[in-house]
Amino acid sequence: MAQPLTPKQKEVLRFIACSVSVQKMSPTIREIGRHFGFSSTGTVRDHLRALAAKGYLARARKKARAIELADAACGIPIIGRIAAGSPLEANENIEGFLRPEEAAPLADDVFALRVQGDSMSGAGIVDGDIVIVRRQKQARQGDIVVALVGGEATVKTLRKQGSRMWLVPHNKKYRPLSCSGSTVIAGKVISVVRRYV
């Protein structure tokens, strides 16, 4: 089991994981330093050593791009928590990774969020579950979506009524949220993972 990361270590790991995902290769030490504004390569090496010690990275010797994601950092990134209740402040920080055998499909446009709250319990999504989300800006009537409401993230069912859209919970304790012009659909929930340990 990989150990918890500091906020800066999460940022560095996220940058490496995104580089591997988009460019199909790891960034160099200089590229990491330039991205974060580190004044020396020693600072980058310190972060890489810490990430390797915690089980997230491996170093391939005698290669220009010698940074490799370890098994602990392969799979779908869990990038934070999502409210199933009142919206939470949106915050994309990697909490960990789902291994490919835990969730499918594995794709560049897929991410995971840990559910906090019980507003979607009637749809079988409960506190502590992990929702697998495909990034998309459009959704259909009845889709379970991740939406940003005034910069805060929530998971709800999308309902359309004429020209109006609502984010509807599946728990009578909560009221539907009216979608305003500032509401943004961030993605569609395509799967739910529940761990019992």
Short summary:
With 197 residues, the chain is α+β, with helices and mostly antiparallel strands.
Would you mind describing this structure in some detail?
The chain is of the alpha+beta class. The chain has helices at 7-23, 29-36, 41-53, and strands at residues 57-59, 67-69, 76-83, 88-89, 96-98, 110-116, 130-135, 144-149, 152-161, 164-168, 177-178, 184-193. The strands form 2 sheets. Strands 3, 4, 5, 6, 7, 8, 9, 10, 11 and 12 form a 10-stranded mixed β-sheet that branches. It has a two-stranded antiparallel sheet with strand order 1-2. Helix 2 (29-36) crosses helix 3. The longest helix has 17 residues, at 7-23.
Topology:
Elements: H1 7-23, H2 29-36, H3 41-53, E1 57-59, E2 67-69, E3 76-83, E4 88-89, E5 96-98, E6 110-116, E7 130-135, E8 144-149, E9 152-161, E10 164-168, E11 177-178, E12 184-193
Parallel strand pairs: 3-6
Antiparallel strand pairs: 1-2, 3-5, 4-9, 6-7, 7-12, 8-9, 8-12, 9-10, 10-11
Helix pairs in contact: 1-3, 2-3
